[in-house]
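Q: Structure for this?
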Amino acid sequence: MDHKRLTLFAGHYGSGKTNIAVNYALSLAGEGKRVCIADLDIVNPYFRTKDSEGELSRAGITLISPRYANTNVDLPALPPESYRLVQDKSSFGVMDIGGDDRGAFALGRFAEAIKEEGDYRMAFVVNCYRPLTSTVEDAVVIMREIEEAAGLKFTSIVNNSNLGRETTRETLLGSLDFVRELSRVTGLEVWMHTAEAEVAKMISEIPVFPLTLQKRIFDLPG
Amino acid sequence: MAERILMKGNEAIAEAAIRAGCRHYFGYPITPQTEIAAYMAKRMPKIGGVFLQAESEIASINMVYGAAAAGMRVMTSSSSPGISLKQEGLSYIAGSDVPALVVNVQRGGPGLGGIQPSQSDYFQATKGGGHGDYRTIVLAPASVQEMASLTIKGFDLADKYLMTAMILADGTIGQMMEPITFEDAEIKTYDKPWALTGTEGKRKHNIVNSLYLKPDELEKKNFERFEKYAEIEKCEAMWEDYMMEDAEICVVAFGIASRVAKNAVAAARSEGIKVGLIRPITLWPFPNKAFEAAENVKAFISVELSMGQMIEDVRLATGCRKPVTLCNRTGGMIPSPDEILEAIRNAGKGV
């Protein structure tokens, strides 16, 4: 897999950005790279990169997250250390951006520096089984709203189409037409398809990036 | 088979409301229910509906009152502190006999509390909340699928009985994602000859009001309203029995607590403990019949994300004849299956 110095994950809320960002950072570290991940989600205080603090720290990854993440303080403030990701070019940087255009406002702060360096990938994470991104037209609307708020254009698509614990190989394979059409309409590369590791290993037709680390609130039966 | 989609609990409420014919949403943002407003803001303008972020919770509930008086299917949503602010409006809606759907995605309290899940608004939801003699139909979803189905049910009950139906959810169910299906549920509509739709010079004008100048008229109205409530208590209670056939110990839990409790009940069964679960789906009316049927149960455990509120209704439902213990966490904490399992084992020692 080719890597850019900076990788930004953005998309509709609930598309799986945080999970993919954490797993991607872990895989970069697994290749022996110096990695720094920043939680720039100013929208949803419930699911955070910080939930994976232990796993990230064991992999030697630097985590930058808002001071109030995982507390009761619902304060949409960016961590001051997040500039380090843009300025310290000796590390690979992974940015987890909040959902929709509202979340992407946080990126505007860094957009000029990111463009100037010119070594980045901005990935649109999409799940075609989510109600507001279930058609290519709807997905493009959300994509354009995010780009406008962020001041940056997407370069790539990450297909994270899934149905939670009901995901099977057919779930992901059933999303390929959607993703190819999204790629054709937008002219963006499909950078990766993602799935939980158990599902990923059942698929040989396409390369699938396995999401080895899964964070859930807790295991709930029906 | 209808299509499976992956939704957050909050989104499921919003989508279900739209499918139930709701075209008027008034709200004010608060974690952990903001996705409801965000979803409505995106969808309502596309389908000719109204999404309005009011200047406050108090304004939004009075907008709901107005739209309901005009005969519209209307809703608002908030979380605990915001629901407290809406209580005056809820009392006026009750006193005017108009239908509305109100969603409370509970967070820890009292006060500003915290943003993590809680069930500590049980008293407020089921016993009144606002001033005066009135009731609210309270529905407690335990899954994302039920967030959708009970929203549709809530609109129906509100229109049928001309009162507020409340979805009493919590931060976990609001935030978690599960695959769900929107069956082509039949959406019933109701004639609303009382609604303020304009007379067009053809009829006497309607009045929607909660003010009564004569005490005997107000008394009469209150008695009539309570006849309606008695009918609801008789006909509309809903609950789920889980492994109750031969149960000697019964866990009682609703919403997210019931999901965790099911784990614990299954684990206790594998240890040979005869335990089951009653999950109230309507909190008002409380499913008293479920407890009449549980006559072989020797001990009850109320599992709650509060300091023990539903436990009072469990005691009433059992006529205080059986011991009822509390297994609880508060402030945004959720009991683990092991904590509940331990409570079941302890109850088992006394059986």
